[in-house]
Amino acid sequence: MFNTKTLFILGAGASAPYDYPIGKDLIHNIIEDMEDYIFIPKYRSDNAPPYWNENDKVNNVLYDFNECIQSFENIAPFVDENEQHHYHQHHENGTFQIYCKTINQTNRSHNFFFKTQIKQVDTFAQLKNALEILDPVSIDAFLRDNPSYARAGKMMILYSLLKREDPVKFNINQSDDNWYSLLLNDLVSECADSPNKLRENKVKFITFNYDVSLDYYLQSRLKKIENFVKNDDKSESPADSFLNALDIEHVYGYLYSLVNTDQYGKYIDISEDNKLPNIRISWVGSATQQSSSPSLTPLKLIQNFKRFIFSFDQYNNIKTMYDERNNPTERDQMIVKHKDAIQWAEEIIFIGFGFDRDNLNMLGIPDTLSEYTQMLPGKTIRYLNYKGMMTSLSFEFEEIQKERHAALNSNSRKDKSKTINIIQSTADKIINAYQNDFKKFLFK
Predict the structure, then answer these.
(1) Cα–Cα distance for residue pair 65/306, rounded to 1 Å
(2) So which domain of life are we looking at (predicted)?
(3) Quick one: pLDDT at residue 391?
(4) The predicted structure's pLDDT at residue 108
(5) What is the 3-state secondary structure (H, E, C) of the chain?
(6) Which of 3, 151, 207, 338 is the most exposed place for a label (fewest CB within 10 A)?
(7) Which residue stretches of the chain have pLDDT < 50?
């Protein structure tokens, strides 16, 4: 278990072993995912002419996102509960009626939708074009500098990450870099004879990732370990006690608040090899003339739509650097909280972290050598420098250590509360860094 106060600071690379994209890969995924088909409202309003006709695709018509918002808001509370048989295709040309019991069935703008690609909606077409032209280093940097794309950008971050959210990735033989399993082992070690000791782990997490993979993993695995779910006196189980007190801070927000583990993977991509059952529907004609021609339900299309509507409904969960900059009170409170966590910690472990200055600022980490030597005495910093590629970073950490060492006399150098200890790992995998460079072997 973690007997020493330990703070993990996680960047995008920490989630990469579980097939989450990082940096430009996420941008490429977002651009690619805008090729997906979804449903959008067939009518602008109850009195407007049809929103769609057969020439739209030929003429490369872009649909007005603002005209879709009301229908999306109306259907958002009910889409998740809908099953395949609630989607009825009216014509071969792609018009569908989506049945929701609580929606007034006489209001056509709530019910009738047609199939189109995300990139055919104007706001997303503009986002796609801007990403392709500007070629930004990350979606975060792009939204920081281009705030007018905030809503579409946040929606596509959610959409793309939810599409790749797969609970199977944490199982055996699914990832050759499953470092979460090593973390879990360290949390539960020394607790076998006294399961309630689990709560005594001195560990906190600050993550710059939107995904909730760590939250999910710890919740789902701890609640499967017999020792930690026993509840003889009807009080909180050791697992629940630990999880309720666990501090995982998502600096820029999260995809959703993980209330229960069933949520994870709910919007995963559906492909043909998912082996989901084929549900048949009928095309629906007029009241007097119905076709009985069977057609396979477009399961992938329905899943895309559910994922899109969830992203539409929850996009404000994501906080960009622009948001933080324009809400100084909230930003300052967050920085104080992060600085307090750093001051609390005796060990700070950076995993998958790129040491971007914007992110360092959010942690309250200084930018001068003298300030580092004042902030870090008594701490051990362990960081993963993937394959030793960040040479400048390695040099700067050495400078911090040397500067502090030079400022101390020979007696003070023996006092751990005054020295700064830097441990670099140049491993090519997180598990190798964790096992060989970050783990303590002989001392607690």
Answers:
(1) 17
(2) Bacteria
(3) 94
(4) 46
(5) CCCCCEEEEECHHHCHHHCCCCCHHHHHHHHHHCCCEEEEECECCCCCCECCCCCCCCCCCCECHHHHHHHHHHHHHHHCCCCHHHEEECCCCCEEEECCCCCCCCCHHHHEEEEEEHHHEHHHHHHHHHHHHHCCCCHHHHHHHCHHHHHHHHHHHHHHHHHCCCHHHHCCCCCCCCHHHHHHHHHHCCCCCCHHHHHHCCEEEEECCCCCHHHHHHHHHHCCCHHHHCCCCCCCCHHHHHHHHCCEEECCECCCCCCCHHHCCCCCCCCHHHCCCCCEEECCCCCCCCCCCEEECCHHHHHHHHHHHHHHHHHHHECCHHHHHCCHHHHHHHHHHHHHHHHHCCEEEEECCCCCHHHHHHHCCCCCHHHHHHHCCCEEEEEECHHHCCHHHHHHHHHHHHHHHHCCCCCHHHCCCCCEEEEEECCCCHHHHHHHHHCCCCCC
(6) 3
(7) 106, 108-109, 273-294, 296-297
Give the number of other Cβ atoms within 10 Å of residue 59's Cβ: 8
Q: Is the distance from CB of 344 to CB of 204 less than 8 angstroms? A: yes
Angle (deg, nearest 10), helices 213-222 and 238-245: 160
In this prediction, residue 163 carries a pLDDT of 98
pLDDT at 171: 96
The token pair that represents 68 in the structure block = 């879709």
Please give the pLDDT value at position 280. 35
For 246-292, write each residue's pLDDT tens digit. 999 999 999 999 988 999 999 999 875 443 444 333 333 333 333 33
The domain segmentation of the chain, as residue ranges, is 1-20+170-263+327-444, 34-166+265-318
Residues ≥6 apart with Cβ < 8 Å to 126: 149, 152
Of 249, 280, 36, the residue nearest 160 (C-alpha): 36
Q: What is the pLDDT of residue 259?
A: 86
CA distance between the termini of the chain? 9
Alpha carbon distance 318, 312 (integer Å)? 12
